[in-house]
Amino acid sequence: AKVAGKNCHRFYSRAMDQAVERRVRMEQDLRGAWERGELSLAYQPVYRLQDRRLVGAEALLRWQHPEHGAVAPSVFIDVAEQSGLIETIGPQVLRAACADAMQWRRDFPGCDVFVSVNVSPRQLRNGDLAALVDHVLSTTGLPAAGLHIELTETAVIGDEVRVSSLLARLRDAGVKVWLDDFGTGFSGLSHLRRVPVDGVKIDRSFIADVLRDPDDLALTTAIIAMAHSLGITVVAEGVEKEGQYDVLRERGCDLAQGYWLGHPMTGQDFRGLLG
Ligand code: C2E
Ligand code: CA
Ligand code: CA
Ligand code: CA
């Protein structure tokens, strides 16, 4: 739009209206997208560092919009979260991921790879996640050990008592709980005392600079040592180079994922890694 200097104020409010309008339209488009087959899951392989054994996969949601093509998860997940649609989509993701993981086990005897599912703050706050997980595991037949739940620190903050008892229920059932994007919040370390988790995923912003920035290497090394002293598994994400893999293995990090090891891929392609 052409704007005169004087109309600057009007321009900005117009631009803002457009942003709001875009979000509203995206929300409308997202409604029912699962049923129309526009949403699918990609799987990114997770490896054990020590021997590079394939141990699991993170399920990552994809949206193929009929007109706009692929929409970035960082954009539409946020819209789903704000609008509450995530409370419908989240359970659909969980069901589909567990069904896929169970199918891998049926098709490849002896296969015990886990599937890791992202759960948003809103899903954790509203609804009974433990009951949902229980139901999904029993209907798909997936053993609890085959499911990992990833939560962000923001999901956990502010409601530690309720979240702790919810996580305790999940962990008692045998589901592993991981704290995602670990290290980006300010209170990461102190949270581990109050919120019981099985693992932390070191945010990829640390891993990105681990070969260049001594501070990031020091922090990563400290996180690994601290987590291990608490009996917590450490996962590194965003491993894009062999050198990063090597240094993380040297420092005793347990698991890793990233473009150097494998991009997120279709379920079909992931099956190809299994057998
Ligand atoms: P996240 O949970 O931190 O997921 C990891 C993101 O890093 C993914 O982006 C993945 O494609 C990307 N990635 C993996 N390896 C590398 C690497 O080596 N380098 C770089 N630069 N990036 C790498 P994606 O798929 O775009 O997902 C973005 C975010 O959307 C996720 O971040 C997660 O917060 C959210 N998300 C995705 N699927 C779901 C879902 O089913 N439910 C919920 N609640 N959130 C989801
Ligand atoms: Ca994640
Ligand atoms: Ca992450
Ligand atoms: Ca840095």
From TrEMBL:
Residues 23-275 form the EAL domain. This is EAL domain-containing protein.
